[in-house]
Amino acid sequence: MIGRREFITLLGGGAAWPLATWAQQATMPVIGFLRPGSPEPNAHLVAAFRKGLGETGYVEGRNVAVEYRWAHNFDDRLPELAAELVRLRVAVIATPGSTAAAAAAKSATTLIPIVFSAGGDPVQMGLVASLNRPGGNVTGASSMSAELGAKRLGLLQEVVPRAARFAVLVNPNNPLAEAFVTDVRAAAAAIGRQIEVFTAGNGPDIDTAFTTLRRHSGSNYVQSIATMSARSSAALRAWRACRTAV
After folding, report:
1. Is the pLDDT of residue 116 over 50?
2. Residues 186-240 pLDDT 10s
3. What is the DSSP letter of 36?
4. What's residue 139's pLDDT?
5. Quick check: do 4-143 and 146-245 share a fold?
6. Is 93 in a helix, a strand, or coil?
7. pLDDT in tens, 135-164
8. Domain ranges across the chain
9. HSE-up of 71 (CA within 13 Å, CB side)?
10. Which fold has domain 146-245?
11. Which residues, 6 or more positions from 25, have their beta carbon under 8 angstroms from its beta carbon?
């Protein structure tokens, strides 16, 4: 299975594809980089992205520029940031590891190429028309990991077989959230377990969710794919605080 870093490296290479049309121009091409999170927790993704560009002959600051836009865990800022990149007339918009960012970019432009990586079916998410013929200005790669929610729940049940209740943290702004929750609820019912769904669209929401979860100390936590890409670090910190307080 391809690793996350290799996945983003592949995306970096993919973002270089549309730059070929700029090769004959005097100005340096510019890539728009759009993410829901913050720079510090995602430094490894940026490094992998730059590696992917380098493997196709592009070095940031030498023959390509990158405009970074971070929503700092507030997904509702993504449309504004995507529109800003469109106004800058970037050559391509890269949205590594974020379905929400890809959707915001797609809504912002039908002309600028968009390269995404996602954890679910891009057709189901409305990003592309089909896998073999994406169409439009959006293309990318998918790890199809959103469909593994039920499997994660089953593995957790094996680790803590006496647990009667599980909790799932979901980003409601992610197009995968509804399908993910449906699958996990069905999986919980199949093994005779209760499932509690908590929604968190930003950092403060994560803290609130875990404050509530702390009062349900019998719950075991399953993090959904809808929060992993952008808010894993914040969720992990909140989970550790919850475990310490219990």
Report:
1. yes
2. 888 888 888 888 888 777 887 787 777 776 655 555 444 334 344 455 555 554 5
3. S
4. 87
5. yes
6. strand
7. 889 988 876 655 566 777 777 788 878 877
8. 4-143, 146-245
9. 29
10. Rossmann fold (3.40.50)
11. none
SS3 54: helix
Q: What are phi and psi of 70, to 5 degrees?
A: -120, 130
Using DSSP, state whether 245 is helix, strand or coil: helix
Q: What is the pTM of this model?
A: 0.60
Locus of tokens 């377990």? 193
Token pair for 32:
């728009």
- Cβ density class 125-135: b for 16+ within 10 Å, e for less: bebbeeeeeee
Q: How far apart are CA 139 and CA 102, in angstroms?
A: 10
Name the β-bridge partners of 35: 70
Q: Are 165 and 216 in contact (CB under 8 A)?
A: yes
CATH 3.40.190.10, applies to 4-143: no
**Full DSSP string of 176-221:** THHHHHHHHHHHHHHTT-EEEEEE-SSHHHHHHHHHHHHT-TTEEE
